[in-house]
C-alpha cells in the first residue's frame, strides 16, 4: 500500500520543462580521451537525439531552427560522472525522518526529488541504486516529472532474518511466524527472505518491477543493528537461488560483503559484483581476478560525532582495510568500480564530488576520471538486456549516448575542478537534453 502511494505521488503534476532540442552542436572543445589519458586537439561534436552523431576536427554543417550551437572555447568535454553505489531515497532522508510519525509521503517526494535534481547538477548523469524503493523515482525521472540521473535500479534489498537488510524495530515480529510485513518491507526497502524459495520469490518480485540487477546481503554491516561485521549471511543454496533467477533474466547479482569468507561464498554462487570488500585479503582478490568479478569499492569517511559507539566499533576494521585493499586490488588487476554509499546522512550528498578526489591517494587523475566514467559504465552494462538505457556510456564517441559535461579547465591536470560543479561544469547534457548551460548560445 505504501509503495503504491509512492508511485502515485512521484507521478503527480506536470512534466518539468527542460531544453528540448533536435540537435546540439558543441564547437571548439578538447575531448577527454581515456585510451590516451589526454585531451584531443580542438574538435566539434554534434548531438542528435539521444546520441553523439558526429565528432570532427572540421566544421560540421547543420540545418534547421531547432539546432543549439555552443562555443566550447577550447574547454574540456568529458562523459557524465557515474556513481555505482547510491541509495537515492534513503540517501536523501535521515533515519529519524524516515521513522517519524510526522513524515508524510509529500515530504518524502519533496526531499528525494530535490536531492535527485542536485545530484544531476553535480554532473552525475547515471547511478546504480543499491537498494530501496527506487522504482517510483526512476519512473518519474524517465517520464520528465522530476529531474535526476539515469537510474539502474536494484529494488528492495534481499536479506536473511537478522541480516544487514533486516530493518525491523524491536517490536516488529517475524512475518513468517506472525504474518505481518515489517514497515521496511511495506515501503519497498527490503525483503526479509529465508530459504531458497523465499529468495527466489524476492528476486523475481524485484525483476517484475524492473530491477536491472539484484542486491542481496551476504555479510554483516556497520549501520545495521543485529549483525556483527564478521558474520557470513545466506547459505550457498540461498545465494545460488538469487543468481539462478537473475541469470535467467540475463542479469547479475551484487552483494554487500566485507570479509573473505562471505565474498568467497558469493563468488562460488556466481555473484558478479562485490559491494564494499574493504576487509578482503590477497587470496580473495586473486580469486576475483580469476573469476572476472567486479569490486565496487567506496572510500569511506572517518567517524563523526553523530555515530553510536557500536557503529564506531564496527567500522574500525573497515576503515583500516580500505587503505590496504584499494592499492592491492589495483596491483592485482581486479576490475574496480567506485561509488559513495551515502545512507541516512543527507548532508553528505553535497560532498559526492569531493569523494572522487579521495582516490588520489592510489590513482592518477587519468585513472580516476576513467574509473568514474568509463569503468563504472562497463559495470552498469553488466545488466545486459535488463539495462533500462541501451547504448554506450562513459565515453565521448560517435554513437555513444549523449551524457556530457563541459568543464572549465583541464581535469587531467587539476582534478579539483570537478569538486566545484556549480562553477566549473558549464554545460550538463543527459540523454541528449540540456539541463545546464551557462554559455550563451552562438548566433
Automatic annotation (TrEMBL):
<feature type="domain" description="Amidohydrolase-related">
    <location>
        <begin position="76"/>
        <end position="432"/>
    </location>
</feature>
<dbReference type="InterPro" id="IPR006680">
    <property type="entry name" value="Amidohydro-rel"/>
</dbReference>
<dbReference type="GO" id="GO:0016810">
    <property type="term" value="F:hydrolase activity, acting on carbon-nitrogen (but not peptide) bonds"/>
</dbReference>
<dbReference type="InterPro" id="IPR011059">
    <property type="entry name" value="Metal-dep_hydrolase_composite"/>
</dbReference>
<dbReference type="Pfam" id="PF01979">
    <property type="entry name" value="Amidohydro_1"/>
</dbReference>
<protein>
    <submittedName>
        <fullName>Imidazolonepropionase</fullName>
    </submittedName>
</protein>
<keyword id="KW-0732">Signal</keyword>
<dbReference type="InterPro" id="IPR032466">
    <property type="entry name" value="Metal_Hydrolase"/>
</dbReference>
<dbReference type="InterPro" id="IPR051781">
    <property type="entry name" value="Metallo-dep_Hydrolase"/>
</dbReference>
<dbReference type="InterPro" id="IPR057744">
    <property type="entry name" value="OTAase-like"/>
</dbReference>
<feature type="signal peptide">
    <location>
        <begin position="1"/>
        <end position="19"/>
    </location>
</feature>
Amino acid at each position: 500500500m505504501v509503495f503504491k502511494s509512492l508511485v502515485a505521488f512521484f507521478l503527480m503534476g506536470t512534466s518539468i520543462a527542460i531544453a528540448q532540442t533536435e540537435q546540439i552542436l558543441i564547437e571548439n572543445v578538447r575531448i577527454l580521451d581515456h585510451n590516451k589519458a589526454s585531451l584531443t586537439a580542438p574538435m566539434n561534436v554534434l548531438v542528435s537525439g539521444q546520441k553523439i552523431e558526429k565528432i570532427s576536427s572540421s566544421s560540421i554543417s547543420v540545418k534547421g531552427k531547432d539546432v543549439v550551437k555552443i562555443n566550447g572555447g577550447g574547454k574540456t568535454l568529458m562523459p557524465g560522472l557515474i556513481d555505482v553505489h547510491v541509495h537515492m531515497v534513503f540517501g536523501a532522508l535521515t533515519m529519524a525522518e524516515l521513522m517519524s510519525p510526522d513524515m508524510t509521503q509529500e515530504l518524502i517526494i519533496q526531499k528525494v526529488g530535490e536531492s535527485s535534481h542536485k545530484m544531476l547538477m553535480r554532473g552525475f548523469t547515471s547511478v546504480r541504486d543499491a537498494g530501496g524503493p527506487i522504482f517510483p523515482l526512476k519512473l518519474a525521472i524517465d517520464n520528465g516529472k522530476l529531474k535526476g540521473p539515469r537510474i539502474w535500479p536494484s529494488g528492495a534489498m534481499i536479506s536473511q532474518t537478522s541480516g544487514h537488510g533486516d530493518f525491523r524495530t524491536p517490536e516488529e515480529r517475524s512475518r513468517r511466524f506472525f504474518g505481518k510485513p515489517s514497515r521496511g518491507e511495506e515501503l519497498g526497502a527490503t525483503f526479509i527472505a529465508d530459504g531458497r524459495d523465499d529468495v527466489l520469490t524476492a528476486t523475481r518480485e524485484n525483476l517484475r518491477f524492473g530491477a536491472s540487477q539484484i542486491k542481496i546481503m551476504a555479510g554483516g554491516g556497520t549501520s545495521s543493528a543485529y549483525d556483527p561485521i564478521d558474520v557470513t549471511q545466506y547459505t550457498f543454496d540461498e545465494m545460488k537461488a538469487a543468481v539462478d533467477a537473475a541469470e535467467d533474466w540475463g542479469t547479475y547479482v551484487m552483494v554487500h560483503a566485507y570479509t573473505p569468507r562471505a565474498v568467497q561464498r558469493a563468488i562460488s554462487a556466481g555473484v558478479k559484483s562485490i559491494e564494499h570488500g574493504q576487509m578482503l585479503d590477497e587470496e580473495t582478490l586473486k580469486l576475483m581476478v580469476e573469476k572476472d568479478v567486479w569490486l565496487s569499492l567506496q572510500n569511506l569517511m572517518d567517524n563523526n560525532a553523530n555515530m553510536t559507539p557500536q557503529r564506531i566499533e564496527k567500522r574500525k576494521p573497515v576503515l583500516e582495510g580500505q587503505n590496504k585493499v584499494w592499492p592491492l586490488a589495483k596491483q592485482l588487476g581486479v576490475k574496480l568500480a567506485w561509488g559513495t554509499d551515502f545512507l541516512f546522512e543527507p548532508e553528505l550528498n553535497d560532498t559526492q564530488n569531493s569523494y572522487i578526489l579521495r582516490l588520489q591517494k592510489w590513482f592518477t587523475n587519468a585513472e580516476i576520471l576513467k574509473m568514474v566514467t568509463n569503468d563504472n559504465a562497463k559495470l552498469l552494462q553488466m545488466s545486459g538486456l535488463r539495462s533500462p538505457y541501451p547504448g554506450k556510456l562513459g565515453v565521448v564517441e560517435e554513437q555513444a549516448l549523449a551524457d556530457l559535461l563541459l568543464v572549465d579547465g583541464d581535469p587531467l591536470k587539476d582534478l579539483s575542478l570537478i569538486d566545484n560543479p556549480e562553477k566549473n561544469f558549464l554545460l550538463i547534457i543527459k540523454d541528449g537534453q540540456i539541463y545546464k548551460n551557462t554559455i550563451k548560445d552562438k548566433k
